[in-house]
């Protein structure tokens, strides 16, 4: 099971944090800080895997990938495969790239809720849901379309909309 | 006019994805991005919270605004600030009809709330309604929230709806429903235990995605109980076969590989099902072999599948052909340049050596490379591997390495871990007691506070009880060597408390035993300890007791006792101590000293630490007194557990489970979400709500499940910290530890074969050397295998026979020392006698992979090194062996034909360009493969300069990434 997904920038600011098992806010901060501490001290050209047991407890591994100014971090347990998780990060970033066209840190910040939408289409309740960025894109676009549509509906006066929903 | 502008802005933002934010949010992000210090950021965020609080309390907030506030709050909370004042607004938002708002609400609550938060009760009703919605997106949003927010108490409320969704026409919904069920199962196994058949049924779903989702749940179920799913082996094998044969729609391909995540999951399941089951395993051989053959090893995901194959092969009933294929893949991993693959290779090797221990030998150099790699992750993984292959012949080298590493790191968690590993290995395989004590000293010195106290007790026990054989002489030797080493260490500053306790105890017990040290010398040292660590009471207690013992032994030996002045003052200080324990010890000491010899002898007999102490647990000597008291009319004693109204204390400790259960039962009673139960209760809901009552089962099952999922190796390790001192010839041998015992027997037979046949052994190593070098060429072409590494390799992997052991460890030490000496003049002679090898300083540079200075020396050295291992008296084989070496040298020389052997500087200059060329080539190659993998997706991803420029300027304006020179684009991604 995937325990957590984090996106942290190279200065240690969290850009996205999702924990599939509830962690109180202070604990989240602590985890993010320790993860950043480990990642920032790692050299270039080393493996993308980090021993995470000292941070997240027994049976946890951490895979990260460094893109431009961001670290993408997945934490998971022994029921997942490290290399596969590395590719899942790739899927996530590829999807973001398709979503925002040449994604950069700013997109990630400004489209906070969309990031979550994308992530929710890839990982569901800690399990891998979809690995094809094309499929994820389809789903996300569908959501955007319907959301826009429902927005339009809600512009219609209340009485009409309640009539429609009947 | 103003409004039009904002609409225009929002339209523009909308085109970017429909998630428009206001200027305020942009300003917030911008100011946080520009914050110079943590305090400044704090201030900005607090201000934002204030603003949000004010805004949220205003009446009639437009919905669109509300949505933005909530998103801003999520953002603020991610930065680590409390946003609980607005949770209720997020909850309210989930009730909204508007999809956008509803989804935002669900997102916020699933990020904000824990599954036992009070507000959940308000959401459950909405979730129930939404799960029945016509709009599949609403259903999905609700399912998403369900995974995070539902706990074992609220599961019954939504379970029927989720089960209904398993038949939903949309596969995306079915997929999520099955995953939500899986989540329920993880959180509360009992509430869905009657639904296991649903998982089996969904395995046959038309949609491969749904089938794939089912595999996750089945994997969990099978991890707990493999036996009840043996009937599915055939189905899993046939599914895997179909997937591997590309019967799935093209859409499931990932990097030209058919549904790799499904393959991985299936291989994991097969590994569980085939473990220790020959019949099931045989059904898997063909398909696993096929995957080995078909899998593309050039892509990351292909290697992931291959790795999973190896795991599967090493878990199921062994098959020689598959093992061979696995070994091939492992060697490819280990020879790769990628640290990731090396890591996987080392991991896989660790799995496979349990079955075929001989496989490690061909990879010795790769393993040593990994051990010396700067990458910590890789290093740790390699230590893991070494731990698995430790035997009595290589324990010294491995534990030495581990201790060196342990000293070098700061990470306490890992330090504790590796220290316990060292102790475990030392206890199991120690070649001599002397070595054992020295090793333990090092461990205690550097990680004393981190190791288990038991270890210290074991060490004391070992020193006290000695070998277990009836060899008193050796015992006393051991003790005096321990005393000596402790007297040496005792002066060092800041020793860990546990270690000091051991030292004090040993000095007290045996400090004067061999007559080498006088009582006053030892007591002086002990007083120093007590003084230096004056705030550590247990150390002081140990020290004062040790002093008492020393004096007592002196008295019983009828020697005159003079009490040192510092000792006197220590005793005086302690007798006024706040600690009653210390006080008592001090008074005891004073009392003992004033007694005469026979009395002292009976109180503290010399060398009696191993005698059993008889304890009369029934306190039978008090019977007469009790009887007397009863006759006088005293109340008889009622055992605690028979007293009414008193908690059963004796059972209390044993029944943690029980306690936990009653606890959770009480929770049930209070928090059962009665109001949200549907009024028209369908029969299924009734059934599941009755499921709630037998709570003992769920939590018990969970508790047993957790240990099972832990890595068993470490588990066994920690529980087996105890020394086995009883009987047999090998004190530390642990006969039950099969995984490490079997390698040692196996390889001992294989090496005996080697020593008889020296030449073949040389040849095989020679070829592996050249092979290894070939693969490193691309990264660092000038790499040669240094003699030091060879030595290490031989001491790690080499023969375990007794005659070889000592020289190899000596070699190791010599080489270790030589790395510290700077490089002296190198005079490589092909015919150098092998005695020279040891003396010749192994140059530092070689170790760093720069061997240009002596291209021929290292080429020869390995063989000389091996000579040392082989039967040295056999001249004939030496000659053979020399020719073999000579035959190889031209090969090496050819490679460096244009490299002047002596001209160091120029040779480096010569090599560098070629190095760079090759590097470029490889990078180009990898680029090419990547573009090939990327395929069609590459097209629409190409960097668009105009976009990038626009973004760049925006970024600069926003100041989000002020330090980055090129903030745009993920170059890495685009290859």
TrEMBL record, chain A:
**Gene3D superfamilies in alphabetical order:** 3.30.450.60
How does the entry describe its membrane topology?
A: Peripheral membrane protein
- Primary subcellular site in the record, as a coarse category: membrane
Q: Which PROSITE patterns match?
A: CLAT_ADAPTOR_S
Sequence ranges assigned to domain AP complex mu/sigma subunit in this UniProt record: 1-145
Gene Ontology CC entries for this record: AP-3 adaptor complex; cytoplasmic vesicle membrane; Golgi apparatus
State where the protein is found: Cytoplasmic vesicle membrane; Golgi apparatus
Q: Does the keyword Nucleus apply?
A: no
Keyword set for this entry?
Cytoplasmic vesicle, Golgi apparatus, Membrane, Protein transport, Transport
- An example of a Gene Ontology BP annotation on this entry? intracellular protein transport
**Which InterPro entries does this chain map to?**
AP_complex_ssu, AP_mu_sigma_su, APS3, Clathrin_sm-chain_CS, Longin-like_dom_sf
So what family is this one in? Belongs to the adaptor complexes small subunit family.
Report the protein name in the record.
AP complex subunit sigma
UniProtKB/TrEMBL annotation, chain B:
Q: Where is the composition biased (Basic and acidic residues)?
A: 771-791
SUPFAM superfamilies from the entry? ARM repeat
**Composition bias, Low complexity:** 736-756, 844-856
Give all residue intervals belonging to the Clathrin/coatomer adaptor adaptin-like N-terminal domain: 51-595
Q: Which spans are transmembrane here?
A: none
Annotated region Disordered: where? 698-859, 956-975
Keyword terms, alphabetized: Golgi apparatus, Membrane, Protein transport, Transport
What is one Gene Ontology biological process annotated in the Swiss-Prot or TrEMBL record?
intracellular protein transport
Assigned GO CC terms: AP-4 adaptor complex; endomembrane system
Q: Could you tell me where this protein is found in the cell?
A: Endomembrane system
Q: Which family does it belong to?
A: Belongs to the adaptor complexes large subunit family.
Give the protein's biological function.
Subunit of novel type of clathrin- or non-clathrin-associated protein coat involved in targeting proteins from the trans-Golgi network (TGN) to the endosomal-lysosomal system.
How would you summarize the oligomeric state and partners of this protein? Adaptor protein complex 4 (AP-4) is a heterotetramer composed of two large adaptins, a medium adaptin and a small adaptin.
Q: What is this protein called?
A: AP-4 complex subunit epsilon
Source organism of this protein record:
Pyrus ussuriensis x Pyrus communis
